[in-house]
Amino acid sequence: MKNAAALSEHLPAAAPVAGGSRSRRGAGRAELELSPAASADLSTRDRVTQLLLERGATTAAQLGSALGLSPAAIRRHLDAMLADGDVVAREQVVRGSRGRGRPAKVFLLTDAARVRCGTHHYDNMATAALRWIARNGGSDAVQEFAAEQVAALEARCRAAMEDAGDEPLARAEALAGALTAEGYAANASTIASGGQLCQHHCPVAHVAAEFPQLCEAETAVISRLVGTHVQRLATIAHGDGVCTTHIPAQPRAQSGTTVTTVRTDR
To answer: Where are the transmembrane segments (predicted)?
Structure first.
């Protein structure tokens, strides 16, 4: 869950990595389907990102010279990155007397692009910190940490679900909306055996691959918010494409009224 990433969000990043362009989102399986030209574009934008990360404000001419690209080629990449919100353009500050004409523009990475450049190193630092907690406090300490990190998110989602009623599937739909607002691209659907909640983004997948306590804490939160026992079927942390949580259909008495389910997860 988002708050489980709090540790990684507040740790300093190590050396930056290329690949921060928004065009890199969804890299992996989908990237295998790119044409050679599209793959080359992504690679070039990664190199532009790396140069801007290292040099700060840089002109198009300087970037083109460093990468061996023509003015038209570097402009095409910069225009695409401007449209994606990965860079901003500003007038170059010139000290002293200035020649005729408008000053050249310089390009800088946006804050969002800088954050994406350091994602993997934030994850590595968070993993190292959790290893330290595990060595010194054991598995129980990791569980306590994970539960504490999701507490604030649980409170926000519960507030957003205030008018969802008591029916588990209706609450799952409301929870999906609350999680989507938190950045998880979630959705809920009805299936033959009940319902399922799918989360298409996991901000702590790299860390949770080693520390499943993060996923367990998240599942417990979903159970409490939906109001019934749930079962986690798949997680991004374990290599699945989507985090999928099954919500069993509620048993009904012969009269048609819902049977009260005894909760065991509190």
So the answer is: none
